[in-house]
């Protein structure tokens, strides 16, 4: 049965290459990255084995990182890789043992498993001593791979019901943020400046006793000639694998027999008390005007977190400053008040949301046209929603950067500059949104769906819009460079708010004029490339 699953998985991988040029390119890029990671991991383990004093630090930390990667990355790909969903096999006449054996065997097929196997082979080469210790090292490598596979399958199966829901898609977005920030965050929190392998020994000692790194700890002990300790630690690693497989089996049984809708059904059985609040605006958006502009702003704000694609854009805008400044933050940023201005990257590099405001509506934009074309109110509502969701993120990033750099005196100026830059961004974005609308494919599972049909053109338009925002922002940038004092920059920031508001009004006027006479062309552009409903 295991061989049947392996052949099926291999066939799925091969057939996936026939899905179009995009899949082929994605597979080739994945293979290149997998090869790089495999060679890097192999080299790291071999180099660690040649270091008699500190090699164990590298082995333990890298082994734990491999296992954590196997736990997190399948969760991120759950929506796009249907082979991870255990419910796909429930209707087949398979015993639980056949199903688990086949799924574990199929887990070895693919770019990621092959890269992991090559990387772990470096541990066998680097740490294997002469004599019986070499057998223990090879066994530790096999147990480490089995631990990666079993823990990954157990976690994905346990969370499969949640990952198919809207909250599960929210969880994947949060996991993307954590995975993106994890290297710099760990380096900033746990790795001191000018760190060496000796300073990482306490962290490696703690990680080495975690179940995720026990096989690597056994390999290190066997390399040093401590065969009894290596055997005991290897036995604990096998126990961990057995526990993960048992958890996985129990979860599969529960998914096959327990109805997922039991809890929601109990909740529906008790009708909610009637509320006098407007269901569109609610309590948090009650301050919005009860006009078409306010209704569009309320809808856009609510959908911002419910639509996976909008959530990805929102979270990406929050991560941008810290990813760009990650190296600077890791080296220490005390007494560097100018670093607070990095929060403006939230607005400046978040143009994807402003430059394609109609694309996420897609063919649903006809509702705006059918209800009486009023592009002015529609654009103002969308702009208000973008400002409401972007400016607090920029302010939060500025507060964090001010706290770590001591730039409190620049905080007020940065927040005002963010408001002015937001006006410039929205003015340019309104024109681009109505001059070059591009539909985004609807996807309930894949939060990173993109319109591949016009990728190059959309990319060039985005670069041109970013260049336009930069040119229009030059007066404020030059003034900030010439005036170093915080009070002076605050005055300039106040003026930049008015400047940004004027450019927003001008850009909106141009966009509204185009929108009123290009309604059919906009609808045709937004309907292009989407399947029939």
Keywords:
24 helices; single chain; 533 residues; 72% helix; mainly alpha
Structure description:
The chain is built from 24 helices and no strands.
C-alpha geometry: globular
Can you write the helix and strand succession as a string?
A: HHHHHHHHHHHHHHHHHHHHHHHH
Termini, distance in Å? 40 Å
Which structural class do the helices and strands define?
mainly alpha
What is Rg? Answer: 27 Å
What is the residue-averaged pLDDT?
Answer: 78
Percent strand equals: under 5%
The biggest beta sheet is recorded as: none
Tally the helices.
24
Helix percentage range = over 70%
Low-confidence stretches: 261-269, 444-453
How many strand units? Answer: 0
In short:
By secondary structure, the protein is mainly α. It contains 24 helices and no strands. Helix 6 packs parallel to helix 11 and helix 10 (214-223) runs antiparallel to helix 11.
SSE order and pairing:
Elements: H1 2-16, H2 21-50, H3 55-76, H4 96-106, H5 111-127, H6 133-158, H7 160-163, H8 166-190, H9 201-208, H10 214-223, H11 227-257, H12 262-269, H13 292-306, H14 308-324, H15 326-331, H16 345-348, H17 351-355, H18 366-370, H19 375-405, H20 411-435, H21 455-472, H22 474-482, H23 486-517, H24 519-527
Helix pairs in contact: 1-4, 2-3, 2-5, 3-6, 3-9, 3-10, 5-6, 6-10, 6-11, 8-14, 10-11, 13-14, 13-19, 14-19, 19-20, 19-23, 20-21, 20-23
């Amino acid at each position: 049965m295991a061989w049947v699953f392996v052949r099926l998985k291999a066939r799925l991988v091969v057939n996936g290459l026939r899905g179009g040029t995009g899949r082929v390119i994605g597979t080739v890029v994945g293979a290149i990255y997998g090869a790089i990671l495999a060679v890097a991991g192999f080299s790291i383990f071999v180099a660690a084995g040649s270091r008699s004093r500190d090699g164990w630090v590298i082995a333990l930390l890298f082994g734990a990182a491999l296992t954590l990667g196997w736990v997190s990355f399948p969760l991120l790909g759950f929506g796009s890789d249907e082979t991870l969903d255990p419910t796909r096999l429930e209707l087949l006449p398979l015993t639980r043992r056949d199903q688990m054996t086949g799924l574990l065997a199929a887990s070895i097929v693919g770019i990621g498993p092959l890269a992991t196997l090559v990387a772990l082979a470096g541990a066998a080469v680097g740490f294997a001593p002469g004599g019986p210790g070499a057998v223990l090292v090879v066994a530790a490598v096999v147990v480490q791979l089995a631990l990666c596979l079993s823990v990954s399958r157990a976690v994905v199966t346990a969370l499969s019901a949640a990952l198919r829901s809207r909250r599960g898609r929210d969880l994947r977005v949060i996991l993307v943020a954590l995975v993106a920030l994890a290297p710099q965050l760990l380096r900033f929190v746990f790795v001191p400046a000018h760190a060496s392998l000796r300073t990482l020994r306490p962290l490696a000692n703690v990680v080495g006793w975690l179940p995720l790194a026990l096989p690597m700890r056994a390999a290190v002990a066997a390399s040093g000639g401590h065969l009894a300790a290596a055997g005991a630690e290897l036995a604990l690693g096998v126990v961990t694998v057995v526990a993960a497989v048992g958890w996985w089996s129990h979860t599969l049984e529960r998914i096959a027999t327990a109805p997922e809708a039991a809890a929601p059904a109990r909740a529906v059985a008790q009708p909610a008390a009637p509320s006098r609040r407007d269901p569109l605006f609610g309590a948090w958006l009650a301050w919005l005007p009860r006009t078409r502009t306010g209704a569009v702003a309320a809808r856009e704000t609510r959908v911002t977190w419910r639509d996976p694609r909008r959530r990805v854009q929102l979270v990406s805008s929050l991560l941008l400053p810290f990813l760009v400044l990650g190296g600077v933050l890791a080296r220490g940023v005390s007494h560097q008040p100018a670093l607070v201005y990095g929060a403006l990257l939230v607005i400046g590099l978040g143009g994807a949301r402003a430059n394609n405001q109609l694309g996420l509506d897609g063919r649903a934009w006809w509702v705006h046209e059918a209800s009486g074309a009023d592009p002015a109110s529609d654009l103002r509502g969308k702009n208000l929603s973008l400002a409401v969701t972007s400016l607090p993120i920029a302010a939060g990033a500025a507060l964090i950067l001010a706290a770590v750099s001591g730039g409190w005196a620049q905080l007020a100026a940065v927040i005002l500059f963010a408001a002015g830059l937001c006006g410039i961004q929205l003015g340019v974005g309104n024109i681009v949104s109505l001059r070059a609308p591009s539909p985004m494919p609807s996807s309930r599972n894949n939060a990173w769906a993109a319109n591949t049909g016009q990728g190059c053109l959309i990319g060039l338009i985005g670069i041109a819009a970013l260049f336009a925002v930069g040119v229009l922002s030059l007066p404020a940038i030059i003034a900030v460079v010439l005036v170093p004092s915080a009070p002076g920059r605050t005055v300039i920031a106040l003026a930049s708010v008015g400047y940004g508001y004027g450019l927003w009004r001008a850009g909106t006027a141009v966009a509204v004029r185009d929108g009123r006479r290009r309604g059919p062309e906009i609808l045709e552009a937004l309907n292009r490339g989407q399947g029939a409903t």
